[in-house]
Amino acid sequence: MIRSAILTTTAILALGVASAQAGTSTIINNAGEEIGVVNLKQGPEGVLLNVDIKGLPAGPHGFHIHSVGTCEDHDAFKMAKGHIKEDDEQHGLLNSKGPELGDLPNLIVPENGEVNVEFYVDDLEISASEADDADDEDVLLDQDGSAFMIHENADDHMTQPIGGAGARIACGVIKANDVKVNNKGNEK
User: Is residue 186 included in any domain, yes or no?
Assistant: First the structure.
């Protein structure tokens, strides 16, 4: 990990200014109201997520990445389809035949309805590093995009197909944005 950071820093210094992959997702509820945001930053082997959402019911909620980037049908968010996954994967972080690429830890929402958490998701890319990779399952901004989905109940991380998480109560389409990095490694 340290070697990767050194190589990345060296490459950025050699180039002067480089683009880093980043993304954002505005989260809406079933009424179509904006309730928060998920910011994404590409890491060397996955994606760092910063979740900042207000107005969710208290308690644990299943949190997943779905395979189609749309939240148009905000009454149920069914157009976002199922989780992103490889063909042979099953749902569940605790499943011996899983997890699917789109499986994430539950969001634990306190009584005030606000959740702010940051975590790292392995094996994902915001956008393809090469044109040949553009339709790989691990690419969030593939041809039909991807969306974050928050469910009504907790995900048990085992039960098929969604861990018993219930109805879809919030959704956010993942969109790209570029972060410029200067020759000192700082965003500008």
Answer: no
**pLDDT the model gives residue 138:** 80
Strand ordering across the sheet containing 18-29: 63-66, 147-151, 168-181, 18-29, 34-42, 46-53, 115-122
Q: Which residue has the higher pLDDT, 141 or 179?
A: 141
Q: How many CB atoms lie under 10 A from the CB of residue 100?
A: 24
CB count in 10 Å sphere of residue 30: 16
Residue range of the domain that includes 106: 2-181
How far apart, in Å, are the Cα atoms of 43 and each of 68, 115, 122, 130?
A: 22, 23, 9, 16
pLDDT at residue 179 is higher than 70? no
Is the entire prediction scored with pTM above 0.70?
A: yes
Separation between Cα atoms, residue 113 and residue 124, nearest integer Å = 28
**Domain containing residue 33: CATH number:** 2.60.40.200
Q: What pLDDT is recorded for position 4?
A: 35
| C-alpha distances out from residue 74 to 5, 31, 34, 42, 108, Å | 40, 7, 11, 28, 22
Is residue 95 situated within a structural domain?
yes
- CA gap 122, 42 in Å, rounded: 10
